[in-house]
């Protein structure tokens, strides 16, 4: 499918040269065909305010999912044939780096559009369990990990997103490695213990918890107690986080760009950390 | 499709009552069925740092698109039947509130994952053309509008996202109203003039431009000069912004949560403003 005559009409229009400048003259003379051939001009990179880490995996076809089909894409149009380029995507909401909203497990729980901006821009704390997880993929983040974290890094701020860094973010390129098994219920990857998740609710009033694995619960769970009980507190969880080793344990701010999927059970979001 | 035995196994697990607290006791006693029936508990709303506006339309089936099919969704599983709830989505990248990346119109231009965090968290400036647009849906944001804006509100900061508020954000519930015509090339809605877009590049080194309509170019354009020439400067554009009337003309920071769609020509993003 193509907008009728796009390439030709773009060529005609750009010939008009509506404003002559160095760049528009360059582009205007030759139209989209030449514009397409030009390398993108160098842009001065604006100095960041502080440092950033991108906690989001590239959203790609075949990204490993807990269940249902992995994401798929197809090309709709291309610049050579149609004058512009676009793709179509099909995926379940729990694909890629994504949110579990309360409504994912709780009847009457909030859906994606109801998660407020105040719940999307929050301090992020990263608890490292990589060493134990390397030895035991069924390990869980425990209350002991949280109290040890606090002795070393200070108190977890109220309202934080508390993320588990298990090292699994680096395995997402390989579905078998990431899942630790071919299919549910034979998965093996770390997750939160119920006790730790509820301690964070009751003792630290967190906004959310996050994992770099496929599930808030460990992979060998078939009962999903963290999903059931943590989400029932009207909080959200993030799954499939990336690059948690690039964020300081404490002190960064997370921006969770959740698309407000209509009646969404959560869904893909862009997560950035800044400090 | 359902994870085998999810509801039953969740019930079994929650009966174990791994940690007794007010909430876990409440939920643990009855399992997910009761958890599902409970109203979400009241949460103390955390005081926002400053004010927020959500510049994103709810991403919904049937949201008006310039071309191709509008977004579609289907329910994959439900809590009563399967123990959890999830949906599947199918849509073109230029659906809902979304980005046009350089690669949308420029061969060799950057795709979604290549847009940097520094280009996603930027000052936002909102230029109001609602009065003129109400009288003439084919109107354009002109260089005059920008110089008039600066006389009133001060200089547009370098690196900003400059958004056109045409009043079209309030029309997105009605495809015919939003498009101003049944199908391309009979659309009528406001957009940037090429001169204004390139003035912002050359005189103010903006990061991006944004519109509350379906296209950076006005609806009656069949040549898309802003798409061709602005995106060729390696900058991005945002389309389908919402609630621009709720943002101050100057002084807010925009967070553009673009999902890093693999080889994406742009795509759905969550846009928040904070000031």
Describe the structure in your own words.
Two copies of one chain form a homodimer. The first copy, chain A, has 275 residues and is an alpha/beta fold. Chain A has two domains: 6-37, no CATH class; 98-274, Glucose Oxidase, domain 1. In chain A, 27% of the residues lie in helices and 22% in strands. Chain A has a seven-stranded mixed β-barrel with strand order 4-10-9-7-5-11-12. Chain A has a two-stranded antiparallel ribbon with strand order 2-3. A two-stranded parallel sheet of chain A has the order 6-8. In chain A, helix 1 runs antiparallel to helix 2 (22-37), helix 6 packs across helix 8 and helix 8 packs parallel to helix 9. The first copy, chain A, is globular, with a radius of gyration of 22 Å. Chain A starts with 5 loop residues before the first helix and ends with a strand. At the A-B interface, helix 1, helix 2, strand 3, helix 4 and helix 8 of A face helix 1, helix 2, strand 3, helix 4 and helix 8 of B.
